[in-house]
Write a structure and sequence with these properties.
With about 50 residues, the chain is an all-alpha fold. It has one domain (about 1-50). The chain is about 90% helix and about 0% strand. It has helices spanning about 1-5, 10-50. The termini are far apart.
Length: about 50
């Protein structure tokens, strides 16, 4: 039983995929926040000129 548990790689693979997915999610959120902040700054600059 222990040998089968130790050699089972399904949980390891699931954890690796979860870590990769969370890293990708953090990068997407960071990028979207950065783009949103830059867009907001540009729109405020444009609106203050009128």
């Amino acid at each position: 039983m222990w040998k089968r548990f130790i050699t089972d790689n399904r949980a390891t693979t699931a954890i690796e995929y979860a870590l990769i997915a969370s890293l990708i999610a953090l990068l997407v959120i960071g990028g979207a926040t950065s783009i949103g902040n830059k867009t907001n700054t540009q729109l405020q600059s444009i609106s203050s000129e009128f």
